[in-house]
Amino acid sequence: MLSNTEIGIDLGTANVLIYSKQKGVVLNEPSVVAIDVHTKNVVAVGTEAKEMVGKTPKNIVPIRPLQEGVIADYDVTAKMLKEFMKKVSKKVGLSMRKPIVVVCTPSGSTSVERRAIHNAVSSYGAKQVHLIEEPVAAAIGADLPVDEPLANVIVDIGGGTTEVGIISFGGVVSCNAIRVGGDRFDNEIIQYIRKEYNVLIGDRTAENIKIEIGNAHPDHKQTETEVRGRDMVTGLPKTLTVTSSEIHSALKESLDQILEAIRSTLENCPPELSGDIVDHGIVLTGGGSLLNGIQDWLSDEIFVPVHLAPNPLESVAIGTGKSLKIIDKLQKASK
Ligand code: ADP
Ligand code: MG
Questions:
Q1: Taken in order 283, 285, 288, 291, is the CA torsion positive or negative?
Q2: CA–CA distance from 88 to each of 28, 54, 130, 140, 221 (Å)?
Q3: In this predicted model, what pLDDT tens digit does every residue of 127-179 receive, in sequence order?
Q4: Ligand 1 first shell, C-beta below 6 A
Q5: Among 159, 192, 283, 334, which residue is least crowded by beta carbons within 10 Å?
Q6: What pLDDT, in 10s, does the model give residues 231-289?
Q7: Cα–Cα distance between 61 and 52 in angstroms, integer?
């Protein structure tokens, strides 16, 4: 008998990933959908849609249906999910006949939203659909021993949120999610350049600046980069040079909020587990954990070892896919 395909979906606010046990990560695209406002039709999804951001005619609007960790538009989220699943079965040749699917949902999502995701995947023809909590998936993906009675601390810095979770014995002991992540960083950079130089830059330019010269550590080797935007006084295009310490100052407040979220989660940890944390430290994952200097800065601040997950952009998807093996146990633990 042919076994059903097992897939894991990481429904992130910035990126959606699909992982299959047989083929690894088979899809990795931005969570963006371009919609024609007149016909309400989907014009493009994923990478193609993200490329349209800020560049389309008025009738085509790129939407990010998941924002700040919540499903802002679940019709569009469902459409996007279906398009991605279709894409995977076409392009990768992965049989999507009655797949068994595990979806990792943002922990800020309500039960109504979770049901909507469940329904969207079921209506695609899935045989079984399971939902898994983000910190658990992230920890499994980072190869942490989640089913042992031992504190695993995972900090997932995504696009819309940062989620700090302590997982032990297959369940979430404590968890803290804040609406600060990579998107907020980009926004702070936009605001900074507008205030300081009277120049308007786009989201993608801000993201590139962050990746290129952003640094979380106050003491870092200075770098700089050229930035292009629109001068708000003359209305004309303008090029300027910004330094990494300027960008650091723009990001500082958001970074401190992340630090606070980690601190308060550690402070609320049951004392028996605190000892584990001193020994094993915490693990960073999510795209935001790739910000330069963040690992060193955090370990200077919280005095426990800070590790980076082997593959921060993929570990939630991998963990979601791998969670099937232990899903029964996890469901029992969360009851
Ligand atoms: P989500 O799970 O919410 O979809 P991801 O874990 O995919 O989010 O992370 C996306 C975020 O990571 C974006 O804000 C992106 O700009 C940021 N990011 C990706 N690579 C880097 C990098 N090298 N440095 C800093 N930020 C990065
Ligand atoms: Mg994520």
A1: positive
A2: 10, 27, 19, 23, 42
A3: 899 999 889 999 999 999 998 889 999 999 999 999 999 999 888 888 899 99
A4: 12-15, 158-160, 182-183, 207, 210-211, 286-288, 290-291, 313
A5: 334
A6: 999 999 999 999 999 999 999 999 999 999 999 999 988 888 899 999 999 999 999 99
A7: 8
